[in-house]
Amino acid sequence: MYKPKSALVKFTLSSLLLLLILNNCYGEQRFLQTPASYQEVGTGEDIILPCRVDNKKGQCIWQKDRRPIGIHQDKYEWANIRSNSVSDTDCSLLIRKASLEFDDGDWECQVSPSDFKRQDSLTSQPARLVVKVKPRKPRIEYGGSILTGALTLKEGQEVTVSCVSRYGNPPALIK
């Protein structure tokens, strides 16, 4: 006995059920790539802090020194596209014209939960970004002041002079 309508209904219901399952089932969010734990960038240079997420359903957020950073054209932009929105997996941040004042610090890539019921929010390990600043020229100091000329000493007199270079980041090391 042939029942084509019954088989068609079963096939349609099975297909619909499979479609619903596939549409609503996905793995938890997880990092595919996070920024390196230490990076250096020269003052005025651009740098990309990479952050890619598998099964991303939440929103990308960046923090510097535990404070949220907004997306601002010509300063903080999504690295992957020009329209200033984030793609399906890429949360990478482009920092333009790095400066010691605004960009030197610990950065974290975060992704909000995929929905309010899931506990799959993500936070990367802190990535230390050092904005390099050239130090001033080394100078000889004596008694806390710059030594500009000759230092006259009496025989047997001991003094301490220092060779210092200030205002560099990271601090200058003179050997």
Structure, explained:
By secondary structure, the chain is an alpha+beta fold. The protein has 2 domains: 27-132, Immunoglobulins (Immunoglobulin-like, Sandwich); 134-175, no CATH class. The chain contains 2 helices and 14 strands; from the N terminus they run H-E-E-E-E-E-E-E-E-H-E-E-E-E-E-E. The protein has helices at 4-24, 100-103, and strands at residues 30-33, 38-42, 47-49, 52-54, 60-64, 67-69, 76-78, 93-95, 105-111, 122-123, 127-132, 139-142, 145-146, 161-164. Strands 2, 5, 6, 9, 10 and 11 form a 6-stranded mixed sheet that branches. A 3-stranded antiparallel sheet has the order 3-8-7, with no helix packed on it. Strands 13-12-14 form a 3-stranded antiparallel sheet, with no helix packed on it. A hairpin with a 2-residue loop joins strand 12 (139-142) and strand 13 (145-146). The radius of gyration is 29 Å and the shape is rod-shaped.
